[in-house]
Structure formats: C-alpha cells, structure tokens
Amino acid sequence: MVKCNFDVATETVTCTFEGRMDAHATAADDPVIRRVLAGSSKVEPADAPFVPPEPGPPRPARVIFDLKDVDFVSSGFFKMCIAIAKEMGEGRFAVQNTRPLVEKAFKVAGIDGLFEVG
C-alpha cells in the first residue's frame, strides 16, 4: 500500500511505494493517491465507502513518487504516472529513487521524457 506525506513548507506530496507495482497494486493505490491530490486529509483504503472529504492540506504544488522499494512496474502504473503528470502540469511530477531495472522500464516504455525519472 502507498504511503503519502504532505510537506507544507514545499507544498509537495511524496508517495512512497513498495514491492511490485502490478495491475492489482496500482488499482488499489490509485484511489488513495487521488484523494490525497484532491486535498483530503482523510485517506481511506480504496474499498472503504465514500465519505465526503474533510478539509485538509491544499492541493499540492508538486507530486513525487518514491520508488526506492519497488522492484517491478506494470503498464498500469505507467498509465497512472502519465495521468498524474498531465493533471499536475509540466515540471510538477517526478518519479525518484528508482532501481536500475525499474528506471530502464520507464526508458524502454518511452515515458521518461514526459516527467523526471531517476
């Protein structure tokens, strides 16, 4: 499961992932990330019933996906990254701390030019 932290000083959300980001893991994490990006301070599991969001931190200025503990990424994860990068705008989304094989997957997929990958 993803863990997201909001740094008020930099207005940056850092989402830390672990393990395999296959289709199942991505589908479970996407709604959680969407709630964080919407500015909700209450983050529930993806299968929790909908509750209107409580006021929380403002919409972040930047989003970082930290993949230091990720050893596999699927096309579904790439799709989520692309969608969030487009939503955030140029220069406001990055994927960091990638392992060599994960970074290579972003390059082979040809999406490393859409946002910062490293």
Report on the structure:
This protein is of the alpha/beta class and 118 residues long. It contains 3 helices and 5 strands, in the order E-E-H-E-H-E-H-E. Helix 3 (100-109) links the parallel strand 4 and strand 5. Helix 1 runs parallel beside helix 2 (75-88). The radius of gyration is 14 Å and the shape is globular. The model has no long low-confidence stretch (mean pLDDT 88).
Care to give the gist of this entry?
The chain has 118 residues and is α/β, with parallel strands linked by helices. The protein contains three helices and five strands, in the order E-E-H-E-H-E-H-E.
Strand content: 25-35%
How many helices in DSSP terms? Answer: 3
Q: What's the average pLDDT?
A: 88
Shape: globular
Radius of gyration: 14 Å
The helix/strand class is alpha/beta
Provide the fold topology.
Blueprint: E1 3-7, E2 12-21, H1 23-37, E3 62-73, H2 75-88, E4 93-96, H3 100-109, E5 116-117
Parallel strand pairs: 2-3, 3-4, 4-5
Antiparallel strand pairs: 1-2
Characteristics:
alpha/beta; five-stranded mixed β-sheet; 5 strands; 33% helix; 28% strand
